[in-house]
DNA sequence: GGGCTGACTGACG
DNA sequence: ACGTCAGCCAGCC
């Protein structure tokens, strides 16, 4: 039975595993989910499912907030990240070198 | 069941 | 170095 959890479930799980004060990219989440090429879908997952995970900690490869947030302006995510202790540039750019979380090599034993 | 969509990424000019 | 194009994969209609 392949994966008991659908890809989107994995994504949500991984996103909720992002440590406080850290950010990650769609590519990393997709890779951890088992789909290094499914970066696009990661966003689609969060878009379709109600945001229960810290989606605001997920940004694109350039550390830029791609999240359209539809009903809410990017400004919202910027504020959320700042509340996490992450410094966000006025252009919604984040320093992935400082806050970028790529699994920290942990990945548990899984 | 087939086709379109999407909060991306990487390659090419 | 920056801008543009195409590919990718699974969910949803």
Question: What tags apply to this protein structure?
Answer:
110 residues; two-stranded parallel sheet; mainly alpha; DNA-binding; single chain
What report would you give on this structure?
The protein is mostly helical and 110 residues long. The protein is built from five helices and two strands, in the order H-E-H-H-E-H-H. Strands 1-2 form a two-stranded parallel ribbon. Helix 1 (7-16) crosses helix 3 (39-48). The chain is globular, with a radius of gyration of 13 Å. It binds a DNA duplex (13 and 13 nucleotides) through helix 2, helix 3 and strand 2.
The count of β-strands is 2
> End-to-end distance, in Å?
18 Å
What percentage of the residues does DSSP assign to strands (E)? under 5%
User: Nearest-angstrom radius of gyration?
Assistant: 13 Å
Structural class based on helices, strands and sheet pairing: mainly alpha
The low-confidence runs, each spanning 5 or more residues with pLDDT under 50, are 106-110
Figure out the total of helices: 5
The average pLDDT score comes to: 84
N to C succession of SSEs: HEHHEHH
Largest sheet: number of strands, sense, barrel closure? 2 strands, parallel
Major beta sheet, strand line-up: 1-2
Indicate the overall shape: globular
Q: Fraction of residues in helices?
A: 25-40%
